[in-house]
Specification:
This protein is mainly alpha-helical and about 375 residues long. About 70% of the residues lie in helices and about 0% in strands. Helix 3 runs parallel beside helix 7 and helix 8 crosses helix 10.
């Protein structure tokens, strides 16, 4: 047998292998995160262009409309404070959608959870407001509001986990029951029967010590702290806890979760209860900090806007805060449309819908490109 000398230069040697760096540069030279931000801004611009075309059809100058919105919101201290006020329910209701979404659940029941949370907190305020000091009463109101929303959301979770009832349908239908329950209570058992409230369907005013503190002579309440703390909790839950990991496993691969011994039904109920708790907290803040009493129609569509915020942000914690601020600006700008441009305040809903359409379109296209 012939022995070959490895150093013999007459034998062809393998070509030298060049080791590439681990982080390959993007084909376009632009980082992925920058391209994502650019695509998002382009989606917003496209929505504004289409909305501008609609304004032209209505005989309005789009430039004047957009200018008046910016002046009425970002151009004054009051406008900025009202954007923050809008952000509170938007963030909390977005969390009510984002947490179940980690398990692949689509819930639109934030509206109903707001009402039930408000009812629980309002009942506690009316019963204990005169006998309990503020430092003790406020935590009780927070617990009551979150408990009400958690029970209402948990009901949807039980129906989905153990009766296989679609959570989107059940949460939507339960919203009507919740709002009608509020109407019944403020028209009957909890109605204010004083002479000043004759013919009005609302509860007596809450005691002064039951009201949330506000900041800087504005309507910005302690609720903004609760909302931001909720975002931090959401990030921590799904980033660093075993529960969050198991819920993401359930959402990513239910079959693998079952085989690994994860009880899917339990985590569905837990996720729905956690989400409902945040929406219930939003209801508590609305009646305790803003309304000062129970009455019908307190939500103003906050649950549905929270749904938009969660999906526009792709359930990312930082994105939820940013989108809540953006939609808060647009929502408060609806009042400017009404007074300065003689347009219905609900016109901004068209702009919100267009933003949702173009942003989700962009997310779908990016997902398709990544798969290919």
């Amino acid at each position: 047998m012939a022995i070959v000398n490895a150093e013999d230069t007459s034998i062809p040697q393998p070509a030298e292998i060049t080791v590439l760096p681990i982080a390959l540069p993007e084909k376009t030279g632009i980082p992925k995160w920058a391209r994502g931000i650019g695509a998002f801004l382009l989606s917003i611009l496209m929505a504004m262009v289409v909305f501008g075309a609609i304004l032209l059809l209505l005989g309005k100058n789009p430039v004047d409309v957009y200018t008046s919105i910016l002046k009425g919101t970002l151009g004054s201290t009051y406008g900025l404070s009202e954007i923050v006020v809008k952000m509170i329910p938007f963030i909390l209701c977005a969390l009510a959608v984002a947490i179940p979404a980690q398990l692949g659940l689509i819930t639109v029941g934030g509206e109903g959870q707001i009402y039930i949370g408000a009812i629980f907190a309002g009942f506690v305020a009316l019963q204990l407001g005169d006998s309990v000091s503020t430092p003790i009463l406020i935590p009780l109101l927070v617990i009551a509001g979150m408990l009400g929303g958690a029970l209402w959301g948990g009901l949807c979770g039980v129906l989905r986990a153990y009766l296989n009832l679609n959570e989107t349908i059940s949460s939507l239908l339960l919203t009507y029951i919740a709002s009608l329950t509020m109407d019944f209570l403020v028209s009957g058992p909890l109605k204010d029967h004083s002479r000043m409230a004759q013919g009005q369907a609302y509860s007596p005013n809450f005691p002064a010590n039951a009201m949330l503190p506000t900041f800087f002579d504005t309507r910005i309440s302690l609720g903004i702290v609760f909302a931001l703390a909720g975002v931090v909790f959401y990030f921590w839950l799904f980033k660093y806890t075993r529960w969050g990991y198991k819920m993401r496993v359930v959402g990513g691969n239910p079959e693998a979760a079952i085989r690994s011994g994860i009880k899917i039904g339990r985590y569905i109920v837990i996720a729905m209860m956690l989400g409902g708790a945040f929406a219930g907290l939003s209801g508590m803040i609305e009646v305790i900090a803003i309304q000062g009493r129970l009455r019908g129609g307190i939500s103003n569509g906050y649950g549905y806007v929270g749904f938009l915020v969660a999906w526009l942000a792709a359930q990312r914690p930082g994105g939820i805060v940013f989108m809540a601020a953006l939609l808060g600006l647009i929502s408060f700008g609806g009042d400017t449309l009404q007074f300065a441009n003689n347009l219905p305040a609900s016109t901004v809903n068209i702009l919100m819908a267009l933003i949702l359409f173009f942003v989700l379109r962009n997310q779908g296209l990016r997902a398709r490109q990544e798969k290919s």
